[in-house]
Amino acid sequence: MNLEFTPKEQAFRAEVREFLRSKLPASIRDKVLAGRELSRDDYVLWQRLMHERGWGGMSWPKSVGGVEWNAIEQYIFEEESSRAGAPRLIPFGIKMVAPVLIAFGTPAQQQRFLPDISSGAAWWCQGYSEPGSGSDLASLRTRAVLEGNEYIVNGQKTWNTLGQFADWIFCLVRTDTKSKPQAGISFLLIDMKSPGITVRPIALLDGGHEVNEIWFENVRVPVENRIGEENRGWTYAKFLLGHERTGIAGVGISKRELERLKHIAREQRGEGGRPLIEDALFAARIARVELDLRALEITNLRVLSAEGVERAPGPNASILKIKGSEILQTISELMMRAAGPWALPFRREAMEAGWQVDPARDGATPEYAATVMSTYLNLRKLSIFGGTNEIQKNIVAQMLGL
Amino acid sequence: MDFELSEEQRQLKETLAGFLAREFPFERLKALKRSGEARDEKLWRGLVELGVPALLVPGEAGGLGFGPVETLALMEACGPSLLLEPVFASAVLATALLSELAGEPSVDRLLAELASGARIATLAHFEPESRFELEAVQARAHEDAGGWRIEGRKSFVLQAGMADVLIVSARLADETLGLFLVPRSAAGVKLIEYRLVDGQSAADVVLSGVQVPAAARVGAHEHASRALEAAISQALAALGAEAVAIMQSLIDATIAYLQTRQQFGQPIGRFQALQHRVADMLIQLEQARSMSVLATMSCRSPDHKERARALAGAKALIGEASRFVGQQAVQLHGGMGMTDELEVSHWFKRLTAIDLWLGDSDTHLKRYIKLMQEEAPTV
């Protein structure tokens, strides 16, 4: 038993740190550390810089141009990136559709799609949920009918994240209405420029534009854009869900945000004019979430270490998702409560780059306080997306034999 | 980074767990508790033969010189059996304390006797008013006739009735802490014995004019306090490991019960409310297990503050998890969870005792908070 990283892992960490120090643009870093929104260009630039360093497909096998980082290396990368204020890598391309392409795609599909994912030239988004199919995803109804060499796709997808930026969408569509729901689904890659696609923003509680509805009206998709076999899409989707476990706990981001929370709690004054971090009740709340995070960090590393040994699916991915989301939600809630009255004036524009406190307009608002409410509201999503935490608990129970 | 036990450690754990499953089945524990007997001496002799009391004794004193990870393996193996023998009190806590003071002749002699199973020792440190606070000692030792005279009262002294030697703490004239090896049979030592909620025997030890020779004092100057703190650190990690093993047993038993108990024409494990409760129990267990690992790997860390913070954090989080898992295991067993018949209630009571021992989760959370408030800002 040993909690130290190996010398090789420590050297890798130093390499990541050096890359972040020399290549992460200050303008992007400042936005991330201040909790501001990033633009499409920010995300694309960061993916391109990763690619230029040779790290575009970090977990992919070398045979398709990846670097084959193992789970621990990916963890170290995520931790260092979060600490340094690098943007999160948009997962839909590199972490979601790419592993499916690598496992089930044809060589032609891999050659066509993977290079642009690695370089950031193509932005991918996900077409899974539908208005009537959320947790019960297999009931989805978007229909694809084969006509000659093309599928004709009709239907509606929703909760599509950042599709307004996307060049491509990977979709689950129904190709067989007669068999049981899971057996009639296919996995299609659709060009977002195809005629018949309409993207409409969904207004969210924090005022942001993060998710969309996407309408498909007689959209023609060449049959060579289908992954694997027709009606086997559910298998590929399940593979995808079980595949990406390394970032699921979000330990790196939570560690960074916890430090921000402590910073706010040192700045804000509580009873008697003393810093809020000296308030017994508030300090206990910070300590309690910090403890949970310390434990989760080790739980996460235990899971990642074990994956080298056994790959049997267990309840671990769900445990990491549940606990990771609860912790980051709690931290964002405490930041909002620490800011207290300063969290009340709602300034959506404070999420945008370049926004600064203007005393004539904003009074004595501390700069950090302007974004905490938006972030708190936005992060309620964490326990809902990617399989709600209740669905995750169903999975845990199932894995335990209940 | 490696979270596995070594081959040797794994064998130690499996050998012990197998031995206890054979020699101390649950029916034997129940019979023992009902009979009012404090222990099963034959079982202790078996543990001695397996080398349990020698595990943590340094090699120079005739032991095996094992450390925190072997302690974790030992406690995880023993935890589910709920044995009443002085494994924790003598082979872990008292031995860890004495090992910190190894090199002193009277200490080395006693360590060798503990290793061979010839004697049993227990720590008589906490007092009626101390609520497990390490520094709150009122017992006093006076220099007298070339030796020491000890006055005071110790509480919750584990397995004092079976111990040959009490390691007694007392304040000296200069208010520093002294440690004394006191034979239980010494004149002026009176035991008021009772059972704890988990069936373990314990006692208040009343010391009235107890005379011991000068050589009975061990750990001169600051050494006694430091050794005590180090031993309590190891004890905290050991209790954490024991609690984790018991929580695992409770969850396994609960799942088995939910799979077999039928109501409304189906196993009650089909009901989502109960499924989610079990998922919550498992999450708390896994988090507690992580803190047990952290505590084990920290308890000899040279960084005093980091060690104290990790151990306080572990005791706090494991205590909370223990309460939740214990209470919910009883709840999900329904009426059967309330009975003395099943292991569930016995494990629940042991977890309850572990949380209170050495200070409950709130006590340790407060320690953790204090250390967190003292840390330097990083942003």
Structure in words:
The complex is a heterodimer of chains A (402) and B (379). Chain A has 402 residues and is an alpha+beta fold. Chain A folds into three domains: 7-89, Acyl-CoA dehydrogenase/oxidase, N-terminal domain (Butyryl-Coa Dehydrogenase, subunit A, domain 1); 124-231, Beta Barrel (Butyryl-CoA Dehydrogenase, subunit A, domain 2); 245-399, Butyryl-CoA Dehydrogenase, subunit A, domain 3, CATH 1.20.140.10. Chain A has 13 helices and eight strands. Chain A has a four-stranded mixed sheet with strand order 1-4-5-8. In chain A, a hairpin with a 2-residue loop joins strand 2 and strand 3 (150-161). In chain A, helix 8 (251-267) runs parallel beside helix 10 and helix 9 (280-309) runs antiparallel to helix 10 (316-339). The two termini of chain A are 32 Å apart. The model of chain A has no long low-confidence stretch (mean pLDDT 94). Chain B has 379 residues and is an alpha+beta fold. The model of chain B has no long low-confidence stretch (mean pLDDT 96). Chain B has three domains: 7-119, Orthogonal Bundle (Butyryl-Coa Dehydrogenase, subunit A, domain 1); 123-219, Butyryl-CoA Dehydrogenase, subunit A, domain 2; 224-374, Up-down Bundle (Butyryl-CoA Dehydrogenase, subunit A, domain 3), CATH 1.20.140. The interface between A and B is large, with 48 and 44 residues.
How many domains would you count in the coordinates of chain A?
A: 3
Topology of chain B as a string of helices (H) and strands (E): HHHHHHEEEEEEEEHEEHHHHH
The percentage helix of chain B is 40-55%
Classify the secondary structure makeup of chain A into a structural class. alpha+beta
Shape of chain B: globular
CATH level-4 homologous superfamily of the largest domain in chain A: Butyryl-CoA Dehydrogenase, subunit A, domain 3
Beta-strand percentage range of chain B: 15-25%
Which CATH class of the largest domain in chain B is shown?
A: Mainly Alpha
Instruction: Let me know the CATH homologous superfamily of the largest domain in chain B.
Output: Butyryl-CoA Dehydrogenase, subunit A, domain 3
Describe the strand arrangement of the main beta sheet of chain B, using strand numbers: 1-4-5-8
N-to-C span of chain B? 28 Å
Distance between the termini of chain A: 32 Å
Question: Which chain pair shows the most residues in contact?
Answer: A-B, 48 and 44 residues
What is the name of the CATH topology of the largest domain in chain B?
A: Butyryl-CoA Dehydrogenase, subunit A, domain 3
